[in-house]
Amino acid sequence: MHSFISYLILSLVAFWLPCFLLQAAVATGSLIKPPELLRNETGITGIGVILGQTSRPGKETKVSIEIAIQDFNIKANWSSVLYFQNSLNKPSRTAFAVKELINDNGVKAILGGHTCEEASAIAEVISEVDDDIPLFLSLADMTPPQATDQWPFLVQTVPSKSIQMNAVAAVLQSWGIHQVTLIYETSHLAYPSSSIISHLSQAFQQTGCELTLILPLSSGPRFLNKEVEVLKRQKSRVFIIHTSLELGIRLFQTAKKMEMTGNEYLWIATNEITDLFHSINSNVISSLKGMVGVKSYFPENTPEFLDFRKRFRQKFSSDYPEEEQDEPGIFAVQGYNAVKLLGEDSPEIFHHWKAIPATTVEIVSVNGKGYLSVYWTEGLGFSETIDGIHRATTYTHSMDEVEQALWPVQPLYAHRRHRNLAESSKNLMTVGVPEHSLFNQFVKVEFNHEKKEYEFSGFVIAVFEEMMRKMNQPFKYQRFNGSYDDLIKEIPKETFDAVAGDVTILSERHKSADFTQPFTESGLQMIVPVRYRISNQAWLFLKPFTAEMWWLSAAITIYNGFIIWLIERKHSEDLRGSIITQIGIVFWLAFTTLFTLRGDRLHSNLSRMAVVMWLFVALIITQSYTANLSSMLTAQRLEPVITSVEKLRNMDATVGYCNGLFIGAYLRDVLDFKNISVKSYNSTHQYAEALNSGEIKAIFLDVPSTKVFLAQYCKRFIRTGETFKVGGFGFAFRKGFNLSDANAALMEMTESRKLKELEDTFLISEKCVDEESSLDKDTRLSPRSFWVLFELTGGTSTVALAIYIIINIREFKKSTEEHTSFIKIISAFIKYWQQLTRRSSKVVNVESDRYMRNVDQRTQDDTDGLELVEFPNRIYYQVRI
After folding, report:
1. 81-115 as b/e, with b when 16 or more CB fall inside 10 Å?
2. Is 379 within 8 Å of 359 (Cβ atoms)?
3. With bands split at pLDDT 50, 70 and 90, how would you rate the model's confidence at 684?
4. Which residues lie closer than 8 Å to 349 by C-beta, 6 or more apart?
């Protein structure tokens, strides 16, 4: 009776204790105390194991479970019997195996189910059992939603798949990647697509990444090339592979043949592939060079694992001699730990073997014939080690700090790689660029024959690329040959997503696209030739007067000197002599009268009258010369020829403007240039030639173009007049595009002086192509400025000469009564002056004063008219005036 009661109590405990432990496991997420139901009065317990024994995970798990049971039986001094069933990796076969284990072998616990489908099949069969419900320890890293509520006997002994996807999201976020493609295998052996998509989506919600394409693949090789072609046409170049190891290897090798690996691509494998890296040889590993992955982590440097590893390799090589690699992986560790959890009295005994917290993931990079590792722990970030022996573990939230551990040979390779990937992971924007810009300093499009591609450069391109870099937005350029208005209209047609060019912001263009804030000064300015003066020329002293002015001044001076000599000649002995002497006297009189007035030396009122007027004119001319020369010597002046738009409009002049821009319409409609001719040009050289030749009087350019033009032609042209307010340069985007990031990037460039540096580099630093210019004729004095004065002095001298001649003719007429005809009188007067000139040319200055006085006395005593004076071989007539 006592034994019956004891047996009854023991049976009740054996029945209800698993339920109690299961509820505790469900509530806490782990087994607090091992299930005592596995013991009975005989010390024999049945444990069922369902594995796909033909797969590497199944083989490893089978060997590790056998080792764990052996250890458990020795330490516990009792026996547990293992009943193995081969699921053949098929859910239907798995369900049949469960029924056989329960009905035929009466197992109290079942281990197995590496895939979600297998685990679900096992749980479904167990749920149909009425009595003695066995405990199910699942080896799958994910079970269906609400599994613990639906199947309270199920205990998940491995970390959830969600931690792997969180690690993937953290890597992508650290590298700035926003869009990825998921590739999964449709076979039942792989992880169900709905679950992996759900985990990725939840992880990406926290990091801002998104799945742009989900591509299912079958395990057969038939359509693999076509599927990879589909991937190559996608804008995203970051791929997450969730397939079996065999399919993943073939997929990556196919992508490598199609040049889809390297710096511009990133392939991230889930632990479905990476957890089996230890099972493949080094040659296969090397073919995956460049692949990155997330891998289940377990410590490999503890004494317990090293002892287990030695025993595992011996048994695994013995049981499966066909396998080349005998290293234990995560599946062996999980199988061993599951048995330990099931059979130990106290978990503290095997704390070194308890599952690593589900917050640690190993990140691997295939390099050479192996792979390198760093680690990610949820809530802490990335690290190079986990619980390092010789140094403390340091965590960081950026992969930049641990990339050297992944790429030790080229530490900058990873940084350059993930920068390129970040650009390609977003939607690649197509940016239209005007092929023919007036100024190459803004936009330059040229074909590189070596690279066989077009290259884009210039100030606008540099600003756009800096802005897009700050926005972390990838793009590609596409040239456009047409007007700027047509270029903007291509955006609504979806030919371009944006436009980068020297495009002015206009209200009409806003109808087709949205514009960023202006990144250049806004305004329209007028450029005209200048009156230019410099003081570094050797013959500058001649520049104050034009050549005509110099010749006219010399002529009027000589003319005045001759008249003074003629009038004063008979009153001064100094004005007589040989022909050469008298010519010199004429020039001397001409130029000395410019600087001094010797009134006491002049004897005739006629000469005084001519000299006074000439000195007045000479004073003004010399003072003007001095002032103009001083200005040239002391100052450099740039004076616009035309100072205002009103003056230009009143001149009925021709003006120029940029070809293909809005300025032509602005001149006609806003500035009212309706009655003048407007011409457009295609280059700055054409502008300069037209302005220099006078073909056009002014040109109108926007402010940025003005800076470039004046930097090139810094000596001949100047901007003048007011600046007319029009929109500056801006970047155009399609309607609805969020411009806040773009404007923020432009503001940051402005505040950091980056924009100013680019402007100085591309616009202001242009070399001036003007030659050393000569002074403009308008800056030099010409006869036009003094024609009245020249007429006064010339007229006065001429009047003096005329009066002098008339007086001499009248005196001559009185002395010769026989000449009654005027013509005869003039003829005789001319002969008289010819004879007088010949006589004067023979008279030398060395003649005695007495002789000259005798001549003068004889001349004065002859009051009747002519007196004959005889010299050797000559006869002269002297008339007193």
Report:
1. ebbbbbbbbbbebbbebbebbbeeeebbbbbbbbb
2. yes
3. confident
4. none
Residue pair 462/433 in contact (Cβ under 8 Å)? The answer is no
Q: Which residue is it, tokens 């309607």?
A: 735
Kindly give, in sequence order, each residue whose CB lies less than 8 Å from that of residue 512, ignoring residues fewer than 6 positions away.
Answer: 488, 489, 491, 492, 732
d(Cα 520, Cα 439) in Å, to the nearest integer? 15
Strand locations in 659-785 (E): 678-681, 698-702, 717-724, 732-733
Of 31, 57, 118, the closest CA to residue 330 belongs to 57
Terminal alpha carbon distance of the chain:
189
- The rounded distance, in Å, linking the Cα atoms of 141 and 143 is 7
Q: What count of Cα atoms within 13 Å lies in the side-chain half-sphere of residue 871?
A: 15
The whole-number pLDDT of residue 487 equals: 92
Query: What is the separation of C-alpha 172 from the centre of its chain, rounded to a whole number of angstroms?
Result: 25
* Rounded mean pLDDT, 173-177: 84
808 neighbors 881 (Cβ within 8 angstroms): yes
The pair of structure tokens assigned to 193 is 């697509």
Q: Measuring CA to CA, which residue among 591, 599, 595 is closest to residue 626?
A: 595
How far apart CA 111 and CA 53 sit, in angstroms, is 13
Tokens at residue 133, please?
A: 């419900």
Give CA–CA dist 757/750, Å, rounded: 10
pLDDT digits (tens, 9 = 90+) for 286-297: 889 889 999 999
Q: pTM for the whole thing?
A: 0.50
Largest distance between two CA atoms of the chain: 201
* pLDDT per residue as tens digits for the range 184-197: 888 655 455 667 88
Of 639, 621, 688, nearest to 533 by C-alpha is 639
Compute the distance between CA of residue 323 and CA of residue 756 in angstroms, rounded to an integer: 67
Q: Residues of the chain with pLDDT > 90: what percent?
A: 17
Q: Which two tokens stand for residue 553?
A: 């001044």
466-523 pLDDT, tens digit each: 998 888 787 889 999 888 889 999 999 988 999 999 898 888 898 899 999 999 888 8
Domains of the chain, CATH where assigned: 13-156+302-353 (3.40.50.2300), 162-296+359-418 (3.40.50.2300)
* DSSP result, 594-655: TT---GGG---HHHHHHHHHHHHHHHHHHHHHHHHHHHHHH---EEES---HHHHHHTT--E
Integer Cα distance of 159 and 142 in angstroms: 8
As beta bridge partners, residue 453 has 448
